[in-house]
Amino acid sequence: MKSASQRPVATSRVLSIAIHVIGLLFFALSFSQVPKGTNPLRKGFGGPYKFLTIIALLLSTITFVIGFLADVLNVQPLFKAKSYMSLCATPVELLITIFYWTLYAIDRTKLTPPGHQLPLSHDLGLHAVPTIMLLVDLLILSPPWPINGRTAFVLDLAIAFSYWGWIEYCFSIVGWYPYPGLTLASPLKKLVMCVVWAAFLAATTVLLKKLQEKIIAITDTTQTADSSKTK
Q1: What is the annotated signal peptide range for this record (predicted)?
Q2: pLDDT of res. 141
Q3: Helices and strands (H and E) in the chain: how many
Q4: How far apart are CA 90 and CA 132, in angstroms?
């Protein structure tokens, strides 16, 4: 039996539940490793939640918790809530993955102080697995996102400025940023960074939605052809 707001390609509620449970297990494992981190920048007010990666992991976890509850209870408002949470979490996680591993390949010390690098398994759990699980949920299980490019940009501006406000508040208490490069950045440069980041997020959202719609169209065409053959 399919869930009330699942895509036709989603074969069953059992598949959806399995994907969400697997994702939550991965996320729980990643969270269990967070206290073991030795990066000195995670100390003080805000702790590891000064880092966008950990905030994104929290968003991913909330998305999958809502998705799991929606699967089990088969309640329409929960499916809608999961879709909106996915809108916030998936583009952020995808861009984190792209930027993180690009910098990782160029110079790891730009990400983490020397001697404080994460084990590869924990690194993957924070900077790759959430993206993979969210994309699986989006492209296999979910209906199209209810958003256009302009609305996505406004939403992503809100996300970017909220994070900026949060780390500035943390800075006012502990005296340092989670990312050392921000210390030298002027307010104008930070403003530009927020706008550019929001633009990247919005573009990612639009591209993911188009990919999702293309997959849905291909799936619908295939299912229609199969139905015609059986008649």
Answers
A1: none
A2: 87
A3: 7, 0
A4: 9
Q: Which sign, positive or negative, has the C-alpha torsion 79, 80, 84, 85?
A: negative
DSSP 8-state class, residue 102: H
Give the pLDDT of residue 228.
58
- Count CA atoms within 13 Å of residue 162 on its CB side: 10
Mean pLDDT confidence for 159-182: 91
In a domain, 95, yes or no: yes
Cα 205 versus chain centre, distance:
11
Res. 49: pLDDT tops 70: yes
> Is residue 5, in this structure, part of any structural domain at all?
no
Burial environment of residue 31 by CB neighbours within 10 A (0 to 12, 13 to 18, 19 or more): middle
In a domain, 197, yes or no: yes
Under 8 Å between Cβ of 137 and 19: yes
Q: Are 210 and 149 in contact (CB under 8 A)?
A: no
Domain limits for position 193: 13-226
Q: Is residue 196 part of a domain?
A: yes
What does the pLDDT look like over 191-222, one tens digit per residue? 999 999 999 999 999 999 999 888 888 876 66
Q: Minimal CA–CA distance to 127: which of 203, 198, 46, 26?
A: 26
In order of 5, 51, 78, 116, the CA distances from 73 in angstroms are 12, 33, 9, 43
- Which DSSP symbol is given to 44? S
Cα separation of 221 and 56, whole Å? Answer: 35
Give the helix/strand (H/E) hosting 175: none
Number of domains in the chain: 1
